[in-house]
Design brief:
Layout (H helix, E strand, L loop, with lengths): L1 H11 L2 H12 L8 H12 L3 H16 L2 H6 L5 H23 L8 H29 L4 H26 L6 H17 L16 H28 L4 H16 L3 H8 L18 H17 L9 H21 L18 H4 L3 H30 L5 H30 L4 H19 L5 H28 L4 H8 L2 H33 L9 H5 L5 H36 L5
Helix pairs in contact: 1-12, 2-7, 2-8, 2-9, 3-4, 3-16, 4-7, 4-21, 6-7, 6-9, 7-8, 7-20, 8-10, 8-11, 8-17, 8-19, 10-11, 10-17, 13-14, 16-17, 16-19, 16-21, 16-23, 17-18, 17-19, 18-19, 18-23, 19-20, 21-23
Subcellular location: Membrane
Membrane topology: Multi-pass membrane protein
Organism: Nicotiana sylvestris
Length: 584
Amino acid sequence: MVQFSEKFKSFLNDRWLVFVASMWVMSCSGIGYLFGSISPVIKSGMGYNQRQIAMLGVAKDLGDAIGFLAGILSEILPIWAVLFIGVIQNFVGYGLVWLIVAHKLPALPLWVLCVLIFIGTNGETYFNTGALVSCVQNFPKNRGPIVGILKGFAGLSGAILTQVYAMFNFPDQASLVFMVAVGPSIVITAVMFLVRPVGGHKQVRPSDHSSFLFTYSICVILASYLLAVLLLQDLSSLNENVITLLTIVLLILIVLPVIIPVLLVFFSGPRPVLEESLLPEPEKQESSRMGSFILSEVEDEKSTDVDTLPPSERQKRIAHLQAKLFQAAADGAVRVKRRKGPRRGEDFTLSQALVKADFWLIFISLVLASGSGLTVIDNLGQMSQSLGYANTHIFVSMISIWNFLGRIAGGYFSENIVKHYAYPRPVAMAVVQVVMAFALFFYAMGWPGSIYVVSVVIGLCYGAHWAIVPAAVSELFGLKSFGALYNFLTLASPAGSLIFSGVIASGIYDYQAKQQHEHRVQGSGLGLGVPLIKDDYLTCYGSICYSLTMGIMSGLCIIAFILSLIVVHRTKRVYAQIYGKPQA
């Protein structure tokens, strides 16, 4: 009994249990991705036009991105308190939206709904911050896979919540908003005490590789299963019992990764433990600083022909010069220069990062590419509706699934790039931005099947951004203020969406809708004096509604690609120092 008690305590403090609990948190934290399904409900219930819906979308994006407070609180409060603040905001914000849309409260002005959606969606920043900060500190040597998997579950949450909504068979569409308010609040409250840093750098084991492979396998099976379920529901009419059974299987797949910590703690023998550095301990700070200063001297002292040598010879030459400088510094023959701030690869505060060109290049690239992707996600319901598709939920769920796979793949492949080739992680971001540009151009040309191409490719590429960028930022600017750095970068998506969706997309959509109405009136022979029919005025039909917007965003993604390549060029040496000689 005593042995079981000790193992159970070890189980509760196992970093893999924290990781699995964080997956469950993140599977409820992508509420913003359901806006494509929620917006038609609000639009019909409140009688809004497309510009008003776009303003609600911008409020949602701002709430999803302004996480400064969450980042600051994560360094002060315990993680469970950070998560609980998010629960309160989510429940209050979307709970009141449901009461208004379901007409259980009197209709309120548009700005009130904007505030409520901002508050409700802002709860996501606390969920994201709590889960990511805990797991990046618990797995400091596996940042790409950790961030990719966690952000992937956030991207998949739209499809998961849609499927759970279908199981309950609510009598009205407004109940989707009710489920968004209640569902995540219950789940995250149940697991919030499990999510926290647990000294993961002291729990590294040889079994980690197989554990990650199992997790990746579950992720791929989960995405494939959800896609199959969506296609089945689209192609045939399923009764309530079948939908319930499919949803139960889905929930089992989500819970299944808990097998990893159970097996590691209760069913494995004595485990060899490897030590893994997390953050410099206080007594190591001075030697760490001295090492970075010596590296600065190496950069200044080495001749330009060193960079032209083969990798193995270059490493030997630099190591020899570094050793000489260490000895000279110890003897007092060389005075080591003291720098005012950290170098790339060391720990930055947010204020220190904000004066670095690399940080702003990454941010602007995100504004252009991630902002374009978020614009597609926010308008996907209207896009599919304009092309004549009745069931817009299918496309919203589909883009959530591909968003999930993009985050998983982005974390996995970018990790291979840095570990096997010691090449800058942002090169993966540049690749996905080129692919995004092609998909947006495909839709702009009005080619057949464009809505499917956009749903798949934009979902993959937008998702990949949010696996690649947080990992890259933690490498270039350190883990110490990761929460604040990450939450600042999340401002990029709404900053882009504010312009691309709130101004460009909605303006073009309403213009085309008005033009189409006038043509219909002229064609009927009634003249332009006939009053506008509300539904006709608010609705645009055909690919013309969004083709120009997509063409503009395609060009912006090309600019983002160029900015990412500049970051790659500027950080080659940093990644070579962090990850060493490329592996064969």
